[in-house]
Here is the input.
Amino acid sequence: MNIVVLVKQVPDMEKVKFDSERGVVDRKSAGTEINPFDLNALEAAVQIGEKIDSTITAVSMGPPSAKDALKECIARGATRGVLVSDIKFGGSDTRATSTILSSTIEKIGAYDLIIAGEKTVDGDTGQVGPEIAEFLNIPHGSYISKIQEISESEIKVCSEIWEGTYLKSIKLPALITVTKDINVPRLPSFKNKMKARKAEIEVMTFKDLEENLGADKVGLKGSPTKVKKIEVPQTAKREGKIYRENIPQAVEKLVDIFEEKKVVD
Ligand SMILES: Cc1cc2nc3c(=O)[nH]c(=O)nc-3n(C[C@H](O)[C@H](O)[C@H](O)COP(=O)(O)OP(=O)(O)OC[C@H]3O[C@@H](n4cnc5c(N)ncnc54)[C@H](O)[C@@H]3O)c2cc1C
Here is the structure.
């Protein structure tokens, strides 16, 4: 079975800064990691591979540094990594991103199952998976929290939405997006770490996809979404004080603070 796993390298959201003037995320302001939901997607693929002989191709669209994320995918059980990267792709919104990723998947060749995370922790739209399925004209199931059964031609999956649990049977080829409840991602094994160290990440550029992808479909030109403004909510600064002696006086001070902050009358 040919499985494609979609993986996005995201900034560490605890540390990243926003450029409010340009309306963009300053991706250089923090370290990066694999989007956590994509680790669940990869683990789902590796577990399928343990039942049905599979090739697992991890695909990422991003800057050259995303090669590190793909190497980590190999260390966690992927067979190969493909990076799609080009200066022309800069400024792509979810529609352009999905267009580029679906062209990449078509270029890679035959696929039976595509697995994506339910969303990313930076963009957080949850649009890319379903959009790719629409562009490829294949069925998709979102928010999958369990794979009940899989064969060469069909996958049976559960999704929990609101109060209900839905059991869906989807004909392959198909795309699913998975939640964090589907599994606990395994850590890289020593053997796979060694394999990852030697692995060559394949790189595709606009030129490789050009026959199916016009320049007007990628980057800012291919992006109907325009960011008008970006605002960072102010976070309240925490203050701390420790009283070690004279507890009755400390309690009095505490009550004064509560009254001042209108926590008590
Ligand atoms: C006008 C505009 C300009 C933008 N310009 C830039 C820019 O210059 N540079 C930039 O980095 N971002 C840019 N973005 C953000 C970019 O569009 C999103 O990061 C991208 O479309 C993914 O959306 P998301 O993070 O909401 O993914 P979601 O839809 O929440 O992701 C769902 C799943 O899809 C898969 N997926 C998503 N993105 C990728 C990817 N890149 N590679 C592989 N799999 C993926 C993952 O499995 C993920 O879990 C821009 C956005 C807008 C609106």
The chain is about 30% helix and 25% strand. The chain has a mean pLDDT of 93. The pocket of flavin-adenine dinucleotide is lined by residues 6-8, 35, 37-38, 41, 59-62, 90-94, 97, 101, 116-117, 119-120, 122-129, 223, 225-227 (CB under 6 Å). Residues 2-217 form a domain with the Rossmann fold fold (CATH 3.40.50.620).
